[in-house]
Amino acid sequence: MSDMQQSDSIAGGEHDLTRVTISTGARLHFGLLDSVEPFGGIGVMIRDPGTTVSASFNDVFTCPDQHLERLCEIARSVSNSLGNDDLPPIRLEVRSDAQSHCGLGSGTQLSLAAAEAMLRLLRLPYDELDLAISHANRGKRSAVGIHGYYNGGMIFESNHPDDNLLNPIQERVTLPSHWHVAVFKPLMEIGQVFGLAEVEKFATLPPAPEKLRESLQQIARRQLVPAARRGDFQEFSQALQVYNCTSGRLFESIQGGPYNGADVTALINWLIRQGVMGVGQSSWGPGVFAWFESESHARRLLRNLPEGIELMALTSAFDQPRMMTCQ
Q: Into which CATH architecture does domain 180-315 fall?
């Protein structure tokens, strides 16, 4: 993605647009600050697996079948802003995207990129909140992926919302470029949590006990964020592991513990036994992250990866906004 241009410097001008392409990263979620609104939490954008979406003019609206329902809904919202009932005459191509429902925030990145590509192609005005809430229909619980799309880096999302209906950024940190993160998932069949099932699970959860909320805030403010700012890998990874496990306790009544199921728990325990630090579950899983001070440290572990575990990515933090080219 290094050859892409940011949206404030668009190739080709906007008077004769024929194609808009947007590339963004994936999102790891380190955990929420509470189990009820306004939630809050911490996460980070990573380079891979990335999402790239292109929008170009066409006779009728078309998009990949596997994303038909999601992208048609977004396209209808974009068309409605023009006062039209019909879908816009646009061809949407999803050139790459992350695995769905694995804790990578794929739905948010795909939705934001598709909505922005169409709005830009049609030269329709929009702002960040309008794009995220009205068109992409994201941000109902966590805003980490939305802020990450626009800013990159590690995002500490406040749980004190302002008047914009979206929790603001409390802290944004650029992680050292040599730090690497491996993202795994067990190959065993695991019940994925998304959509209506996710809504139903949240509806059963009480607010976090006050001591647990305070503990999460203290770990975030006093350990995790300061260590990230200093580039102190050991303290960062230790604080992250504790924060993730503590946040997981918000959901232990429906996960069976701080992690979602026996297979994810076994994978995390195996990584810890190997001496890996900064280990945790992203969102509901089954994606599991493990941080390393360098790529070489990570590759030494990967040589001994046991069967039954898929490596989804070995990558680093995505410390820039989404990238855009217009032709």
A: 2-Layer Sandwich (3.30)
